[in-house]
Design brief:
The structure is a single chain. This protein is an alpha/beta fold. It has a single domain (about 10-210), classed as 3-Layer(aba) Sandwich (Rossmann fold). Helix content is about 30%, strand content about 30%. The chain is built from 6 helices and 15 strands. It has helices at about 15-25, 30-50, 90-95, 145-155, 170-180, 205-210; strands at about 10, 55-60, 65-75, 80-85, 100-105, 105-110, 115-125, 135, 140, 160-165, 165-170, 185, 190, 195, 200. The chain binds uracil.
């Protein structure tokens, strides 16, 4: 049921382990502890795809046998920015991949009437302009939160911005790319629609509730 038509600037990560784990995440009966573990593992793989173009430079090192020129990252460590709270379950996976990354936090909630994003917390390193910045939020639904988050990060200085989500709804992905054409998106699937409450269809339900074992309100 995922959409076959691409969205410009959006990469569908079709690695078999991403797709296999996504099925477990979509499945209604997957319990929170398994949901968190699967999301963490998928996030590592999505992060690897999103950071595949990081620059390298050679450094002289000594192996136990000989000295050699070997590649190291030639950029400042990236900054991972989870949108609270569901993004936290993705941040752990990206940090598994890149323990030297900094972790910023952005608190947004969705106004239930307007579905607009309202900011309640923001803390990030001062040198965002110098570093690749990875926004992480599992569900790209209407795009309101992602657009607000990207606005906020740009206002704070971020220039190299990338957005990782587990699932994107086509209307939200199109809206984010229209508002921020310089920001590429990596996701495991592109679902076709949203329901009247702004949930992705077929989706996986409320990612925060499913990850943290809270009741849906
Ligand atoms: N947020 C979620 O957690 N799930 C959706 O389907 C949409 C937004």
């Amino acid at each position: 049921m995922t959409s076959a038509f691409p969205v410009d600037g959006l990469t569908l990560v079709q690695h078999p382990l991403v797709q296999h784990r996504l099925t477990r995440l979509r499945t209604r009966d997957t319990p929170p502890e398994r949901f968190r573990a699967e999301l963490r593992a998928v996030s590592l793989l999505l992060g690897a795809a999103a950071l595949a173009d990081l620059p390298l430079e050679d450094r002289t090192i000594a192996t136990p046998v000989a000295s050699m020129e070997s590649a190291v990252l030639a950029c400042a460590p990236p900054v991972v920015v989870p949108v609270l709270r569901a993004g936290l379950a993705m941040a752990d996976g990206v940090l598994d991949l890149l323990p030297e990354a900094s972790l910023a936090h952005l608190g947004l909630y969705r106004d239930p009437e307007t579905l607009e994003a309202v900011e309640y917390y923001f803390k990030a390193p001062a040198d965002l302009a110098e570093r690749p910045v990875l926004l992480v939020d599992p569900m790209l639904a209407t795009g309101h939160s992602a657009i607000a988050a990207l606005d906020r990060l740009k206002a704070a200085g971020a220039r190299d911005l990338r957005f990782l989500c587990l699932l994107a709804a086509r209307p939200g992905a199109v809206a984010v790319r229209a508002a921020h054409p310089d920001v590429r998106i990596w996701t495991a699937a592109l679902d076709p629609a949203l329901d009247a409450k702004g949930y992705i269809v077929p989706g996986l339900g409320d990612a925060g509730d499913r990850a943290f074992g809270t009741d849906h309100d």
